[in-house]
Amino acid sequence: MPLELFPLLGLILLAQGLYIFKKAKKKGFNHWLWGFIGLLNAPLSLIYFLVYSAYKRGENLANLLVKSLLVGLWSGGIMVVVSLVSREKFSLEAEALIVITILGAILGIAGFLWGKES
């Protein structure tokens, strides 16, 4: 990872940690613990918090997870199609396509759960 990306990564983790901290404090969860977890990685900490929050609200957790996984797979497929179309302009390796698929799936799940949060 290039050193130039470390400040951006730090900013993303800090913003996520603060968001999770504020939401956890508002909902009455252990906000210091969730804020620390939010500083560890992105966006999986946000997904964990959103799933936990939905569980505490009493939603059907199995149904929520199935729907979020379907959304994640759908968005990962869209990311693959977009990257294959742009492959003519850029040189992408097979490993890059796998990473794009996984990233698209994770971001799709986070987006779905974030929408359920509101």
Give a description of the structure.
This protein is flat. It is mainly α and 118 residues long. The longest helix has 25 residues, at 61-85. The chain is built from five helices and no strands. The mean pLDDT is 80. α1 (6-27) runs antiparallel to α2 (31-38), α3 (44-57) runs parallel beside α5 and α4 (61-85) crosses α5. The chain is 79% helix and 0% strand. The protein folds into two domains: 1-42; 43-118, no CATH class.
Main β sheet profile: none
Beta-strand portion reads: under 5%
Mean pLDDT: 80
Distance between the termini: 35 Å
**Range of helix content:** over 70%
SSE succession: HHHHH
Say how many strands there are: 0
Q: What's the total helix number?
A: 5
Low-confidence runs: none
**What would the principal axes of the Cα set say about the shape?**
flat
Give the total of domains.
2
Radius of gyration: 16 Å
Structural class: mainly alpha
Give a topology summary:
Blueprint: H1 6-27, H2 31-38, H3 44-57, H4 61-85, H5 94-117
Please name the defining characteristics of this protein.
118 residues, mainly alpha, 5 helices, 79% helix
Structure at a glance:
With 118 residues, the protein is mostly helical. It has helices spanning 6-27, 31-38, 44-57, 61-85, 94-117.
